[in-house]
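Morning!

This is the sequence you dropped in the shared folder:
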Amino acid sequence: MNTLTVNLHLMMAAFYRPTSTRLKIVIEGSAFPSDSYAVASQAGFHGLDAEAAIVRLAPREGEHALRTDDVVAALERDGSSVALVLLGGVNYLTGELMDIATITVATHAAGAVSGWDLAHAAGNVPLELHEWNVDWAAWCSYKYLNSGPGAIAGCFVHARHARDTTLPRLAGWWGNDRSERFRMGPNFVPRADVESWQLSNPPILSLAPVRVSLEMFDRVGMEALRERSRRLTGYLETLLDEVAVGRAVEVITPRAPEARGCQLSLHIPAGAKQLAGQLRDEEGIVCDEREPNVIRFAPTPLYNSFHDAWRAARALERLILCS
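The structure's back. Tokens below.
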């Protein structure tokens, strides 16, 4: 339903209920900007000062990725003031795959709600949100789910919440109980499942590419995709390490395969935007830059090849040598 940021707001409308003592929202210091906008506006909606309400977790000095132990320690230390923990399942900038299960346990131990932005995780890594006891999550489908910008997004709400019809939620036509919907009455009767968070008729044309993409995922299976992802990303990592020798280029994505998906982010001291443009225009290599100095390669297992990875690394090497 909807798009990612709309769904984040709908979820926070239901699950972010600050009190005078428990009001903080924990996010990454490097959270995607729209996540920062969303949590700041939610704090403001409740009459809170965003600077006081939002806690931004940062990696240790000289490191690029958050350590799970540090996230857990922060929640153990300050958790009594935390209402919501909203982290990216895979960090958009570094490509770090967070330990969702462990952090969710720590979140609940602190008495807070566990929410996850899975924009870069859905279709990228296996997810077991119900088993991990995640309270809610939201994602888009235009990244690894291959459905194009603006395609319809999705939500997860744990069954224990979805069946709770007393939980506050913003109401709309499509979330009303089907048996009541066409009685045309003024009272909202929420469906006793996650679909009660839906607001309006889903856009059929936007659903079409999502359906085709998900059918492909069903045929291949996430287990097979994850195995190929590990090998393909590992191969590209080896090639990029060769490119980096003697040059101030650094892979900032975690090295452990279990701590990343199919993304490798490179720190490029000379600046990323021009180099990414050269890769695209001169070499036919489509990557992504995040200013001022990060380039992201995503060797996606569903359609990228080992030859694609080799071409990308060799093209990067040629351009760096010429710079």
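Headline: The mean pLDDT is 94.

More detail when I'm at my desk.
O.
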